[in-house]
Structures are given as C-alpha cells and as structure tokens.
TrEMBL record:
Gene3D superfamilies: Nucleic acid-binding proteins (2.40.50.140). Keywords: Membrane, Transmembrane, Transmembrane helix. The chain crosses the membrane at residues 6-23, 53-71. This is NfeD family protein.
C-alpha cells in the first residue's frame, strides 16, 4: 500500500465517488469526484498532503456553491419551447364545421381537429376564429 503514490489514491477516490453519482444521479457526488481529481493533480505536482486535502475541499465546496444552484434552477424550469399539444394551447383556429355541445371540426395548425366548446351552451359557425384553451385526447376545447 505504501508503494502507491498519493495521486493514485485520489483517482481511486474520484472513481469511488463517481459510482454513487451514476447510481443515485446526485450531482454532489460528481462535484466531490472533481475535487478528488484536483487533489490527484496536486499530488502529482508534488503538493503535500495538507495541500492536497485543502485543494480537494476548496474545489468541492466551490463547485457545490457555484454549480449546484445553477443545476437546481435548470432542473426546475419548464422548457421554454412548448411542443406537442402544449404548443397548440392558446393558438387560434378556424371553425370548419359548426362547433357546439355535440362537437364539430376546426382547422388548427394546418390540420382538421374535432372540437367542442368550453361552454356546452355556446356554438360557433364555420369561418369563425376561435381560441384553443385545452386539448383532451384528440379533441380541441375552444372559446
């Protein structure tokens, strides 16, 4: 054990910290692993044990303090670009066949969709522009 250089132990530690990163998907383990790699580089450059530990601690803490809030913010943000049916909500459509409580058809995004009004007592005649407020299955809910 004494034959192995300190930088090798730091790399083993980095790999050991990488395993729970992959298993748990907790980015903090990756940041600690990066700190261990920095400790290995310090050991490879001839730094003493105290310097190695200080570099490990400084890099790990810096990454956790700086990167973690950014990663958390990106994880909680909704995507800026709406796709699928989310992209159709709020769009305007043109009534093709009378839309009333029993159904009807609209032209939405270049396609013909079945539609029904949000308020079942409302009806919309062909040619009228309506707004899509929701999509339920393959039916657009319009006002």
């Amino acid at each position: 054990m004494a034959d192995i250089n300190a930088w090798v132990w730091w790399l083993i530690g980095a790999a050991a910290l990488g395993i729970p990163l992959v298993i748990t998907a907790m980015p903090e383990f990756g940041m600690l692993s990066a700190g261990a790699v920095a400790g290995a580089v310090t050991a490879g450059l001839g730094g003493g044990m105290v310097t190695q530990v200080l570099v490990f601690a400084a890099v790990s803490v810096a990454l956790i303090v700086v990167v973690r809030p950014i990663a958390t913010r990106h994880r909680t943000q909704r995507p800026v670009l709406a796709t699928g049916i989310e992209a159709l909500k709020g769009k305007q459509a043109v009534v093709v066949e009378r839309v009333d409580g029993s159904g009807g058809r609209i032209k939405l995004a270049g396609e013909i969709w079945s539609a029904r009004p949000l308020d079942a007592s409302e009806s919309y005649e062909p040619g009228r522009q309506v707004d899509v407020v929701d999509i339920e299955g393959a039916t657009a809910i319009v006002v």
